[in-house]
Design goal:
Elements (H helix, E strand, L loop, with lengths): L1 H25 L6 H13 L1 H46 L1
């Protein structure tokens, strides 16, 4: 049992060292500007990107419409409750 714990501890330390070594090596690797601009142009021409963009715009429109509906409902509630209070106080006098 002690060997298992020792092996686990050793493997964990080795994996951490390997992970930090890979992270150190990859931190210097960055795509060049030509590759990034070509990829961006290719994405903007793709159909799936256009569909995702349209779906995102549509969801924003629905979100704004729902927000307006909530605000309109709240305003209607406030106005009708104020009128009911005013009508009740007028009846009681």
């Amino acid at each position: 049992m002690e060997n298992v714990e020792e092996i686990t501890r050793t493997e964990s330390a080795n994996l951490d060292a390997v992970a930090s070594d890979i992270a150190g090596r990859l931190s210097r690797v960055r795509p060049n500007t030509f590759f990034r601009s070509a990829l961006k142009a290719r994405l903007t021409r793709s159909k799936i990107y256009a569909r995702r963009k349209a779906a995102g715009a549509l969801s924003v429109v629905w979100l704004i419409a729902a927000l307006f509906a909530v605000i309109a409902g709240e305003l209607i509630y406030v106005v009708t409750s104020a009128r009911c209070r005013r009508a009740r106080s007028g009846v009681q006098r």
